[in-house]
Amino acid sequence: MNIAKDWEDYEILDMANGEKLERWKSVILVRPDPQIIWKEKSYPHLWKTINARYKRSKTGGGSWEYNKKVPTSWQVKYKELTFNIKPMGFKHTGLFPEQAVNWDWMISKIKQEKREIKVLNLFAYTGGATVACAYAGASVCHVDSSKGMVAWAKENVAASGLEKRPVRYIVDDVIKFVNREIKRGNQYDAIIMDPPSYGRGTNGEVWQFEENLYDLVNLCVKVLSNNPLFFLINSYTTGISAKVLENILRLNINKKGRFEAGEIGLPMKNSNLVLPCGIYGRWEK
C-alpha cells in the first residue's frame, strides 16, 4: 500500500465505529467511512474537539451537524500545492488527501522528462491531479461533467499560483470528449482518470464503472502520443480489485513499460493503523 504520510495540514486523529476524526488545518471534522468496522476509540478525548460531523440519514443521504463555527471555505496546503476546502453534501470536502501519493508520483515522472508533457485528466473533479501536473510543468486538459467542480478546479489552480499555466477546462461527458479528440487528432502524453461507480454526463449520459471502464480505456489509448509517459486509473468502487485495473491497462496498452496496481491509504496519527482509501492501476514508461 502507498501511504500519504507527508501531509502537515491534514491528519486522521482517530478512527472507530464507522467514522474518522480528521484535522483539516485547524478544522476538526468527523466523517463516515465503511472501512472502519472496529469499535474501540484510541483517543476518546479528541472526539470532544470536533467542529462538525456528517451524519447519514436512515432514508438516504445525510447532513452536517455543527458543534462549532466552520468557515464557508478554507485552504490546506500539501507541500507547494494549495487547495480550497468546503463541507459539501454527501460527506465530501472537495479533496481526497490520500491522492497525495499519486500527486507526488506524477510530479516526479513529469519533471524527470525535461520536456513539455500534455496531460488529459478525466473525471477530474476539483483538480487535485490537475494542480499537481500543472505545478510539475505539464499542460493539462481538465474534463468533468460538473460545471461547479470545474469552477472549483480553477480556484485550486489559482490558489496554487498556477493560473498562468496552460490548463484547458472542459465541462463535458468524458466519452463524448475523447471521441471528439480522436477525430481532431489531438494526443496526450499522460492520461489520468478517476471514474465514479455511477454517474451522469452533461446531457444525462449514464456511466457505470463495470460496464463502461474497459471501453473508455480502449478509447483513450487512441489519444496517447507516440511517446507516452503514463496512464493512471484511480477507483473507489466497492468490490473491484486493483489487479482488475492493471489487467484492463495490460489488455489495452501495447507499449514497453511497467504495469503496477495497489492500494492507497492514510495513516492515523500516533498509531500503527492505516485507513485503506482506494485503489489504482497504472502503466508508466
Structural features, described:
- The protein has 285 residues and is of the alpha/beta class.
- It folds into two domains: 2-85, Golgi alpha-mannosidase II (Immunoglobulin-like), CATH 2.60.40; 97-284, Rossmann fold.
- The protein is 25% helix and 33% strand.
- The chain contains six helices and 17 strands.
- The strands form four sheets. An eight-stranded mixed β-sheet has the order 1-16-17-15-12-9-10-11, sandwiched between helices. Strands 2-3-4-5-6 form a five-stranded mixed β-sheet, with no helix packed on it.
- The chain is globular, with a radius of gyration of 19 Å.
> How would a textbook summarize the main sheet?
8 strands, mixed
Given as residue ranges, the uncertain stretches (5+ residues, pLDDT < 50) are: none
Order of SSEs: EEEEEEEEHEHEHEHEEEHEHEE
Q: What general form does the structure show?
A: globular
The CATH homology group name of the largest domain? Vaccinia Virus protein VP39
Q: Could you please say which CATH topology of the largest domain applies here? A: Rossmann fold
First-residue to last-residue Cα separation: 21 Å
What is the helix content?
10-25%
Number of domains: 2
> Which whole number gives the mean pLDDT?
95
Strand content bin: 25-35%
Count of helical regions: 6
Annotated CATH architecture of the largest domain: 3-Layer(aba) Sandwich
* CATH class group of the largest domain: Alpha Beta
Name the strands of the widest sheet in spatial order. 1-16-17-15-12-9-10-11
Number of strands: 17
Gyration radius, rounded: 19 Å
The structure class reads alpha/beta
